[in-house]
Amino acid sequence: MVITRKVLRNVSLTAHPVGCRRHVEDQIAWVKNPKGSLYSPAPNRMPARVLVIGGSTGYGLSSRIVAAFGGGADTINVSFEREPGEKKTATPGWYNTKVFEEHARKSNLRAFSVFGDAFSDEVKEETADLIEKEFGQVDLIVYSLASPVRIDPKTGATYRSVLKPIGKPYSALSVNLDDPTITKETIEPATVEQTEETVKVMGGEDWKLWIDLLDGRDLLAEGAVTVAFSYIGPEMTYPVYREGTIGKAKEDLEKTAGALSKTLRAYVSVNKALVTRASAVIPVVPLYMALLYAVMSEQGIHEQCTEQIWRLFTDRLYAGIPVPTDKEGRIRLDDWEMDPLIQAAVQRRWEMQREGKPLKGGNLALVRQEYDRIHGFGYEEIDYEADVDPRVV
Ligand code: NAD
Question: By the 8 A CB rule, do 131 and 218 touch?
Fold first, then answer.
């Protein structure tokens, strides 16, 4: 079939297997080759056996790639995927995982995946069995889930996460990935229940369930480390992010790191705003990203997930103890994004935007290109008119 790009309200409905291959292979190539002056070489001590929960796209996939091709780790990924059919494309994560595992095998690295609902007891037990059988124990657990829904394994209750402000409506300018016209968006505040549900889905409860299970079964190696990802961002996005429902969930995640520290070294890493399947649907964020990408690329410091995670491993987690953190104990990979000079430039450009007018001073093309590429689209050399079998990557 000919696979075309279909994006509805910043959600891509299709993925291209040839392009997903390219997306993963580009990341592997970057990790294997010299990184330039901004990036340190891989430290001597990297984790040997790594579990990535949510390791098929975005920050989780990059964590798997850096661990394997930067540090020689054997890896297990747990992710939720749609399988392809004769006339139906798979999720990008399904293609990415197949390509990653093909390359891992070629490099004599062991790589396994569990496809299913990471929130469920069954998937946790299956993963623990796999660790016991194949690895014995794990040295690093990366928790990188981004999900709109969670079924509580104990009660069967379904919780849904929402991206809303708390207390009062929030109006701000925004932009659509496919249209540079500035729009105004108003988001109604979340109910108390919606806030609680978002914390249930995106907070730390499930992360702790994973660690408790692995600890209970003696699957955590001596000196094991775990990391989950958070975001803070600039004040202009606080109402919908840091002070909104997702911010409450992230606060809970950060508190959980403290609780987990009794069992192993546990960190929350605050990462840069990047286009991923999860972040593109947050209102206001695509406009902020278009301005931020423009400013950071003009300064030569724009990064994607791979570069961010490279710095996480080389300059933070495995650079020596104590790991560099802020005073709240969080790892800050958003340091370049939050640099006052970068933020002041973004703020100046933000003030230039007018509803109904085209975006000024932003780089929406780059945001859109990255969004397309994580779904396997937007590569000049790929023939998107060609007939491809969606079941083959
Ligand atoms: P993503 O959508 O690219 O990846 C999410 C991963 O979770 C995928 O592998 C997906 O298959 C998996 N997943 C979702 N539901 C699942 C389920 N029920 N069971 C198993 N796997 C499931 O998202 P991302 O942007 O890389 O986000 C990862 C983390 O990083 C999130 O905590 C997010 O808040 C955080 N973060 C993102 C940004 C950003 O700008 N993208 C910035 C800072 C922090």
Answer: no
Task: Burial-class residue 344 by CB neighbours within 10 Å (0-12, 13-18, 19+).
Answer: exposed
Write down the pLDDT at residue 178.
Answer: 87
Q: Any residues with CB less than 8 A from the CB of 191 and at least 6 apart, and which?
A: none
280 CA → ligand 1 middle, Å: 12
Tokens of 231: 């975001």
Position 279 scores a pLDDT of 82
Is 238 annotated as catalytic?
no
Strand partners, 358: 181
The DSSP line for 227-276 is EEEE----GGGTTTTTTSHHHHHHHHHHHHHHHHTTTSEEEEEEPPP---
What is the Cα–Cα distance from 226 to 269, expressed in whole angstroms?
A: 10
**Pairing state between β 220-230 and 265-270:** parallel
Ligand 1, residues 76, 145, 252, 289: which to mutate, most atoms within 8 A of Cβ? Answer: 145
Q: Which CATH architecture has domain 7-373?
A: 3-Layer(aba) Sandwich (3.40)
The SS3 assignment for 327 reads coil
What pLDDT, in 10s, does the model give residues 262-297?
A: 999 999 999 999 988 778 888 788 999 999 999 999
Question: Domain residues of the chain, as ranges?
Answer: 7-373
Give the C-alpha separation, 171 to 349, whole Å: 18
- State the pTM of this model: 0.97
User: Distance (Å, rounded) from C-alpha 151 to C-alpha 304?
Assistant: 31
The whole-angstrom distance between residue 340's C-alpha and the CA centroid of its chain comes to 24
Residues with CB under 6 A from ligand 1: 54-60, 78-80, 93, 117-119, 144-147, 229-231, 271, 273-274, 276-279
pLDDT cut 70: percent of the chain above it: 100
What confidence tens digit (pLDDT) does each residue in 90-100 have? 999 999 999 99
Three-class secondary structure of residue 366 per DSSP: helix
